[in-house]
Write a structure and sequence with these properties.
- The chain is an alpha+beta fold.
- The chain is 28% helix and 30% strand.
- The strands form eight sheets. It has an eight-stranded antiparallel beta sheet.
- A hairpin with a 4-residue loop joins strand 18 (342-344) and strand 19.
- The longest helix is centred in the middle third of the chain and has 17 residues, at 217-233.
- The two termini are 35 Å apart.
- Mean pLDDT is 84; it is low at 44-68 and 345-349.
- Bound molecules: guanosine-5',3'-tetraphosphate.
- Guanosine-5',3'-tetraphosphate (G4P) binds at residues 16, 18-24, 87, 138-139, 141-142, 254-256.
- It comes from Sphingomonas plantiphila.
Length: 524
């Protein structure tokens, strides 16, 4: 382990629209990083995992990935922590939280489809937090759009400067390889099948006569012309602009055929930011802050159906974590001795002895740790900026068997801690209300209630349309609550929530009670 491991750490996520190639690219990154040895393992592992519990059938049926995990690999002295984000738009909340735990992101785009809806949403989340983005335009081994069209689309739709770093040589039927504009290397297929990248030719530049002997005349003429135009017409790479989130370097490649993947890893190693200071109360915390601090960005229950375990995923922000260390969750009390922290390597969970800023550790617990919790040695800081979002869909939960109230309450509390749903307990009446951001979460809720808690339930329309947390002076908030008890509920932490019948009603009460704030997000 190098003396100061912080500069050599890259904690990142891949953002993309389903089908753009995130799984394939993940697999190839792990392969290049030596974390797995055979292509196909990530997918196989996914399938084995899916077979494990009933609710994951939804993943299979819909062909989407609902859970997220962490994968660590190393290459040439750099440690990469890749946080997988759930790919479906219904899980924007979970995804958002995962993106709070990364220092940079790779945006994967399908060369034939360009920027798609989900990519765009995820990009906006990154922009909110100034997460720097490297773009990987995938599938250049297939017919796609003109390179210029793709670059201009990124620039226009995302309002970013683009800096092309590599360039495809031909596409689809005429695909011959990828040219690296920065290192002047030509990446070529090798072997009889010419299926995969195997050969790298170092050239002296685009006018190197070697190229004439290797690349077909037509592709070479186009490469030379296009690259010259591109180098003149687009921004050149600027590390500061990239780190500020104003510019994205763009790599072209084929995850399937392994073209451009090593250029991408090199780019992450060379340019992506290492762990840095994160916003906290009372002051931002830098990685070299004297004590161990971190925050929980995800909680996953029942990873193993045989054990009712829960894993809290903590992003380490500062200090050197050592196994057995005691950390205290800010605001709720007792120190926890962390005897069996888990690091998530590609193939298995491994016990961690030490972890450094930027690393993710899994902390098994029985429900003490929640999303948004800060853990530290002295419990004197609190990380900010991990919000809950106001739900867009509210439903009343109806038990099929009324004797199972206790189990239902437990399940709803568990699942809300995991961030699958939000739960609201009305002040008056006994019908619990659950809230979600997307429809799919409702299906996940019902399947998991059945499979993991043996609770049959139906969901009915609720008389409410949205929810708002309250802010302002305690006296004003109390007055509002007293006058509106019929529409008040408590969330899982006992904080008051106003359940509104419509967006119009939110506007109406906001006008009538100008001293009360009606908040669409709540930060823990
Ligand atoms: P996702 O995680 O972003 O949803 O995408 P995934 O990697 O699963 O890839 C979606 C499809 O695109 C897969 O095909 C995959 O093989 C293909 N693909 C990924 N990268 C490339 C590439 O660089 N070139 C080409 N030509 N195809 C690529 P599939 O037919 O849906 O699955 P499979 O049967 O091949 O596994």
């Amino acid at each position: 382990m190098p003396e100061n491991p912080i500069p050599g750490r890259r904690t990142f996520a891949i953002i993309s629209h389903p089908d753009a190639g995130k799984t394939t690219l993940t697999e190839k990154l792990l392969l290049f990083g030596g974390a797995i040895h055979l292509a196909g393992e990530v997918k196989a592992r996914g399938q084995a995992r899916r077979a494990r519990s009933d609710w994951m059938k939804i993943e299979q049926q819909r062909g989407i990935s609902v859970t997220s995990s962490v994968m660590t690999f190393e290459r040439e002295g750099v440690t990469f922590n890749l946080l997988d984000t759930p790919g479906h738009e219904d899980f924007s909340e979970d995804t958002y939280r995962t993106l709070t735990a990364v220092d940079s992101a790779v945006m994967v785009i399908d060369v034939a489809k360009g920027i798609e809806s989900q990519t765009r949403k995820l990009f906006e989340v990154c922009r909110l937090r100034n997460v720097p983005i490297i773009t990987f335009v995938n599938k250049v081994d297939r017919e796609g759009r003109e390179v210029f069209e793709t670059l201009d689309e990124i620039a226009d739709l995302l309002a970013l400067d683009v800096a092309p770093m590599t360039w495809p040589v031909g596409m689809g039927g005429t695909f011959e390889g990828v040219y690296d504009l920065v290192s002047n290397r030509l990446l070529l297929p090798e072997g009889d099948s010419r299926e995969f990248q195997g050969k790298v030719i170092q050239t002296t530049g685009l006018d190197d006569p070697q190229l004439d002997a290797i690349v077909s005349a037509q592709n070479l003429a186009k490469l030379r012309e296009d690259a010259e135009l591109a180098l003149a017409g687009y921004a050149s790479f600027d590390a500061d602009a990239y780190r500020n989130g104003d510019l994205t370097p763009v790599y072209f490649g084929s995850a399937l055929k392994e073209f451009g993947v090593d250029s991408l890893i090199d780019a992450l190693a060379a340019h992506a930011p290492p762990p840095h200071a994160l916003p906290a109360d009372p002051a931002p915390v830098a990685p070299d802050h004297g004590e161990v601090t971190g925050f929980v960005f995800k909680v996953q229950a029942n990873m193993d159906p045989n054990h009712r375990d829960r894993i809290a995923f903590m992003r380490l922000v500062s200090g050197t974590f050592k196994r057995g260390m005691k950390l205290t969750p800010t605001g709720h009390g007792k120190p926890i001795a962390i005897h069996s922290p888990i690091m998530f390597f590609a193939q298995q969970r491994e016990l961690a002895d030490e972890a450094f800023p930027g690393d993710i550790i899994g902390i098994p617990n029985h429900g003490t740790l929640r999303v948004g919790d800060t853990l530290s040695e002295k419990a004197a800081v609190r990380f900010t900026g991990l919000p809950n979002f106001a739900p867009e869909i509210l439903r009343r939960v109806q038990l099929k068997d009324p004797t199972k109230t206790k189990q239902l309450r437990k399940a709803l509390d568990d699942l809300s801690e995991e961030g699958v749903i939000q739960v609201f307990y009305p002040e008056i009446g006994s019908n619990w209300i659950i809230g979600v951001v997307g429809q799919l979460q409702l299906d996940v809720l019902l399947s998991r209630l059945e499979a993991e808690y043996k609770v049959g339930a139906n969901l009915e329309p609720a008389p409410y349309d949205t929810a708002r947390w309250l802010g302002g002076e305690p006296g004003d908030v109390k007055e509002f609550m007293d006058l509106n008890r019929g529409a008040m509920a408590k969330d899982r932490d006992g904080d008051p929530v106003f359940l509104a019948k419509s967006a119009w009603e939110v506007g109406y009460v906001a006008d009538r009670y100008p001293r009360v704030k009606f908040l669409a997000t709540r930060e823990r």
